[in-house]
Specification:
The chain contains 2 helices and 4 strands, in the order αββαββ. This is DUF1816 domain-containing protein.
């Protein structure tokens, strides 16, 4: 009976996702979905380690309960500084 209610509750709640942001490359990564925040927390270290091995810098992570993201990897483009014309 407990599994029934757990399953029913799962239909109305969002799954857990590991959200990792990096400054270099300037990206947001989503890993998941996980049934529980505990499962997500256990997997988080492995994702961070993989990104570190790939050379990612300034890594921040959090666990979120959200609907499935539209994109699992989002590259954030920095705006190109507008060039200033100088006249002499």
């Amino acid at each position: 009976m407990k599994n029934f209610f757990s399953s029913l509750f799962g239909l109305f709640s969002n799954p857990s996702w590991v959200k990792i942001t990096t400054a270099e490359p300037n990206c947001i990564y989503y890993f998941g979905p996980f049934d529980t925040q505990r499962e997500a927390a256990q997997a988080k270290a492995g994702y961070i380690e993989d990104l570190q091995q790939e050379g990612a810098q300034q890594i921040q992570s959090m666990i979120e309960q959200i609907a499935e993201p539209k994109e699992l990897t989002i590259e954030i483009e920095m705006p190109i500084a507008s060039s200033v014309m100088m006249t002499a």
